[in-house]
Amino acid sequence: MAGPTEMMVTVAVADDMIDEHDEMFGVTLMPKMPDYVMVGDGMATGTIMDNDDPPAVSIADASGMEADGEVNFMVSLSGPSGLPISVNWATGDVETPDDMYGMA
């Protein structure tokens, strides 16, 4: 009596909370002794597709004295990332009640 001709090989993966690239790994079949079977195409590639959203970047308000010559703003990520993070930034004027443009 013949046995099954197919079976599923399951590889457990860990779900994390880190945004990252998809990850690939290999599975290799090796004959078990005694040689009742020959291995044909004995290599396969598995892909773990990332399901995590990228973290959000935020910046907090800041203040500083003119005499200090600088104002430091804290930039934060909402969570860790497995990918490089970079943002562009620029400065600009903001109207305040004491310094509104167009008032003479």
List the helices and strands and how they pair.
Blueprint: E1 23-28, E2 43-48, E3 57-59, E4 75-77
Antiparallel strand pairs: 1-2, 3-4
How would you describe this protein?
- This protein is mainly beta and 104 residues long.
- The protein is built from no helices and four strands.
- Strands 1-2 form a two-stranded antiparallel sheet. A two-stranded antiparallel sheet has the order 3-4.
- The radius of gyration is 29 Å and the shape is rod-shaped.
- The model has no long low-confidence stretch (mean pLDDT 87).
Number of helices: 0
Rough outline: rod-shaped
Compute the CA-based radius of gyration.
29 Å
Order of helices and strands: EEEE
Number of strands: 4
- Helix/strand-derived category reads mainly beta
Q: What kind of sheet is the major sheet? A: 2 strands, antiparallel
Task: Pick out the low-confidence regions.
Answer: none
Biggest sheet strand line-up = 1-2
Helix content: under 10%
What distance lies between the first and last C-alpha atoms, to the nearest angstrom?
A: 100 Å
Which short descriptors sum up this protein?
104 residues, mainly beta, two-stranded antiparallel ribbon, rod-shaped
Short description:
The chain is mainly β and 104 residues long. It is 0% helix and 17% strand.
